[in-house]
Design a protein that fits this description.
Helices cover 86% and strands 0% of the residues. By secondary structure, it is mainly α.
Length: 195
Amino acid sequence: MHTKLIDAAIKLYAIHGYHGATMRKIADEVGIKPASIYFFYKNKEELFMAAFKQLLDNHFRKMESIVKENQDRPVEEIFVAMIHGIVAHHKRDMEGTDAYISLVTAPMKEISSHLFQHMQRYNQWLSESLESLLRKSYPNITAAEIDRIIKQFVLIGNGVFWGIKLYKDDAFEEQVTLAIQIIRALFDELDEKYA
């Protein structure tokens, strides 16, 4: 029942936002009485946090799997694969993407705290993974250069994520192409300095 409630909550957050996704609507979506939800979650905020955690964890696992699946490819191709992975993950689950955006903008203190903790954990993993890949390909690369490349990648990835909602069809594809061109230019620069 936990999974059904979370799935229903995500669907309704995507459609109605945090305030519009009432416990009654969530219960109706699952086919139970609203009071039954309180057997599983003490309040709307707890269900909200469970749904938000699921969305964040799904994205994290997807990024981990992309790095693992591509670990033997050139580092530049791993970065490109991660951009394509962001697109595929969020395009494949537009409902989850819409819910994520709705939840990120919800007026809950807990969400800010949870998002910050998740992003700390995710950024730690991302930094360590990308640093390891960069050092493997460019043994003489400086720490400052690694930091710059990782920050630029995060900026590009965030732009691609938000572009999913801002641009349609060909315009979005152009944004992805431009993002990949920027990544390739970063690696051309690294190749000139360190290869």
